[in-house]
Amino acid sequence: MNPIYEQMETSVFARMSALAADHKAVNLGQGFPDFGWPDAILDKAADALRHGSNQYAPSRGTPELRDAIAGHYGRWFGQELNSDHVCVTSGATEALGACILAAISPGDEVIIFTPAYDSYAPMIRRAGGVVREIALRPPEWRIDAVALQAAIGPRTRAILFNNPHNPTGRLFDAAELQAVADAATAYDLIVISDEVWEHILLDGQTFTPLASLPGMAERTLKVGSAGKIFSLTGWKVGWIVADPALADVAARAHQFLTFATAPNLQSAVAFGLAEGDRWIAPMQQRFARARDRMVQGLQAAGYAVLPAASSYFLCVDLPASEIAVDDETFAAVAVERAGVAVVPVSPFAEQDPVRTIVRLCFGKRDDTIDAGVAAMARAKEMFA
């Protein structure tokens, strides 16, 4: 069997979710929300299933959805796009895979910032590429421009950049974005920009697409996600947005991964994006309230919580919480003995992992948050 997969451990998300089920624990580990979707989008999907096409959609996506994606980014970020810039995929992880397979040749080096979403490194290796990690450090999780420049060598082909950042909830600032853009333009690099959390912004934050920076539109493959925007992660509808020359190659990789995405879901997402300007602000406010509820509960229980500006994740600093064990040990005790599943952050890096942080998902109903916080309080007492 392919050693990349034969030697690969089970995803930390699947592992912790399985433990949550085994121990009947509150699952604050895997990142899916249990609220937030507009019912009108569900109604549109149901209607399209019954009355629309149920055959193969065009591989690059329905014209309706591709136009809606281009129009959405034009309204929100002033980008001049059309359907030729867009390829619809079966989820953002598939979009990432298509971008990596399209951009990376055997022997190419790809820079990633760790902790990093755990699909990045395996997919880079599947394309024959070599992973080069740059470690971000808590509590700031800042990109160091000097470290980025030092990581670039003669075989560097691409940067895989995630903003807003999972698992830390960090929204990178203008100087950090510019550092990535400067490195890409100076060394003629492709940037695969994972921007799936672009609308899950808290506290009035604003998002800047990397492709909107000077010199970046022609070298950036952006990955977006309807599942994140509309809290419908199970639909697995994502997309790639890029200069048509790049989008064409990514679409060729996509056609032999999933070929096409369910047409009724594409119709519903197109409707959601066209009408979404009135749904996004209430969604952001609801996630902010959920975050604040969890933060207040955790702090009352004695935990040190790092700032979360985006996504529906927040991180707990174990040493600052006076817990003297590593993240894997804490996560095991919390799920087995206290009744709550969290995600240790160390599996998000291979070379220099942070072992002092656990991640929690706050995209939950109030009763789930309260039950999870109560279980975290029990876990805290076990390490007192």
Automatic annotation (TrEMBL):
Protein family membership: Belongs to the class-I pyridoxal-phosphate-dependent aminotransferase family.
Aminotransferase class I/classII large domain: residues covered: 25-374
Family annotation (InterPro entries): Aminotransferase_I/II_large, Kynurenine-oxoglutarate_AT, PyrdxlP-dep_Trfase, PyrdxlP-dep_Trfase_major, PyrdxlP-dep_Trfase_small
Cofactors: pyridoxal 5'-phosphate
One Gene Ontology MF term: pyridoxal phosphate binding
Pfam family name, one: Aminotran_1_2
Protein name in the entry: Aminotransferase
UniProt KW keywords: Aminotransferase, Pyridoxal phosphate, Transferase
Statement: the UniProt record of this protein carries the keyword Nucleotide-binding: no
Annotated GO CC locations: cytoplasm
